[in-house]
TrEMBL record:
<dbReference type="InterPro" id="IPR013328">
    <property type="entry name" value="6PGD_dom2"/>
</dbReference>
<dbReference type="GO" id="GO:0050661">
    <property type="term" value="F:NADP binding"/>
</dbReference>
<keyword id="KW-0346">Stress response</keyword>
<keyword id="KW-0732">Signal</keyword>
<keyword id="KW-0521">NADP</keyword>
<dbReference type="GO" id="GO:0009507">
    <property type="term" value="C:chloroplast"/>
</dbReference>
<protein>
    <submittedName>
        <fullName>Os01g0574600 protein</fullName>
    </submittedName>
</protein>
<dbReference type="GO" id="GO:0051287">
    <property type="term" value="F:NAD binding"/>
</dbReference>
<dbReference type="InterPro" id="IPR036291">
    <property type="entry name" value="NAD(P)-bd_dom_sf"/>
</dbReference>
<feature type="domain" description="3-hydroxyisobutyrate dehydrogenase-like NAD-binding">
    <location>
        <begin position="197"/>
        <end position="316"/>
    </location>
</feature>
<dbReference type="InterPro" id="IPR008927">
    <property type="entry name" value="6-PGluconate_DH-like_C_sf"/>
</dbReference>
<dbReference type="InterPro" id="IPR029154">
    <property type="entry name" value="HIBADH-like_NADP-bd"/>
</dbReference>
<dbReference type="InterPro" id="IPR006115">
    <property type="entry name" value="6PGDH_NADP-bd"/>
</dbReference>
<keyword id="KW-0560">Oxidoreductase</keyword>
<dbReference type="Pfam" id="PF14833">
    <property type="entry name" value="NAD_binding_11"/>
</dbReference>
<dbReference type="InterPro" id="IPR015815">
    <property type="entry name" value="HIBADH-related"/>
</dbReference>
<comment type="similarity">
    <text>Belongs to the HIBADH-related family. NP60 subfamily.</text>
</comment>
Length: 324
């Protein structure tokens, strides 16, 4: 029978109806009792893995830079020296890597996760990559007899800490059902979108909208200031109207102060625009606003802002003004 359980592993934890560990829902979902691997402990991976540990999961971690494992080991995680070792010692392994190249290397490279995979195991890639990359990883994983699910996330550093991410999944539906309770520890909602590639596509469409919105917002902040308005008032006005968005209210005040504490690195936003442009190209769709936004993120990268928050794209506009 359904029971009340804590959902969301972090500060956003809340009670929702779910299934107890021993029962299963009509869709085959149930609690997860097995060993969980986590590869990639950057801005997103570290809090996601922390939430799994804090929810009582048996978690084994690996990260290219070994020192980033230490806070997780303090929370009770185990360590293995390679992705292959994590995968062979765990039932299900999550991966949260920077980009297509690193996601492929960690899954399919030397000592990659695929080498530790076997029938009965699962690999869940939560990195933001393009559909072709996801399919390639899926092919390597499933060739071992293991199952594959792509599950990129919407939501940034704070939602990751609070267990309030949105999972955009696709691939093996039985694996989706098997890891549902783990996704519910890390997130507030989950979508199953079909075959491998559909989750990646959805994520890129969402992020291309976000990247263009941020450029438009930046232009508005600068223009308001130039015509003698207080940009803080613009942030307030926007927050009360139809184009209100948490992103503007969250980032606006620090952008006005030219501060860009990193939640979503600018280099990753530019990567997502690059991948979204290729996606649009694959179906001959023109996305001129995104193309223009992408150029600004590239300028921002060339200004040394790659590791700042993506809201630092406003500095590329300022640089254009100064060079007039
Ligand atoms: N930050 C955000 O708001 C969000 C990010 N995303 C996506 O999630 C993914 C991770 O983002 P985020 O955590 O912010 O990024 P970070 O840059 O903080 O972390 C990237 C991770 O990838 C690892 N990595 C990079 N290159 C390699 C490589 N060649 N081999 C092995 N490992 C590698 C890094 O290891 P090391 O520590 O050694 O550098 C690190 O663990 C990206 O795809 C991003 O687009 C999705 C939603 C929100
Ligand atoms: O990929 C990053 C997404 C960030 C967000 O959804 O706030």
């Amino acid at each position: 029978a359904p029971t009340l359980r804590l959902r969301g592993g972090g500060r956003g934890a809340r009670l929702v109806f779910s299934c107890s560990a021993s029962s299963s829902s009509p869709s085959g979902e149930g609690g997860f009792s097995g060993k969980v691997g986590f590869l990639g402990l950057g801005i997103m991976g570290a809090p996601m893995a922390s939430n799994l540990i804090n929810a009582g999961c048996d978690v084994t971690v690996w990260n290219r830079t070994r020192s980033k494992c230490d806070p997780l080991l303090s929370l009770g995680a185990k360590y293995e020296p390679s992705p292959a070792d994590v995968a062979s010692s765990c039932d299900v392994t999550f991966a949260m890597l920077a980009d297509p190249e690193s996601a492929v290397e960690v899954a399919c490279g030397a000592n990659g996760a695929a080498q530790g995979m076997a029938p009965g195991k699962g690999y869940v890639d939560v990195s933001t990559v393009d559909a072709a990359t996801s399919k390639l990883i899926g092919k390597h994983i499933t060739s071992t007899g293991a199952s594959f699910l792509e599950a990129p996330v919407s939501g940034s550093k704070k939602p990751a800490e609070d267990g309030l991410l949105i999972f955009l999944t696709a691939g093996d539906e039985s694996l989706y059902n098997r890891v549902a309770s783990l996704l519910d520890v890390m997130g507030k909602s989950r979508f199953f979108l079909g075959d491998v590639g559909k989750g990646a596509d959805m994520k890129l469409v969402v992020n291309m909208v976000m990247g263009s919105m941020m450029v438009s917002f930046s232009e508005g902040l600068l223009l308001s200031e130039k015509v003698g308005l207080d940009p803080n008032t613009l942030v307030e006005v926007i927050s009360q109207g139809a184009i209100s968005a948490p992103m503007f209210s969250l980032k606006g005040p620090s952008m006005v102060k030219a501060a860009y504490p990193t939640a979503f690195p600018l280099k990753h936003q530019q990567k997502d625009l690059r991948l979204a442009l290729a996606l649009a190209e694959s179906v001959s769709q023109s996305i001129p606003t995104v193309a223009a936004a992408n150029e600004l993120y590239k300028v921002a990268k060339s200004l040394g802002l790659a590791d700042q928050d993506f809201s630092a794209v406003i500095e590329a506009l300022k640089a254009k003004e100064q060079s007039k």
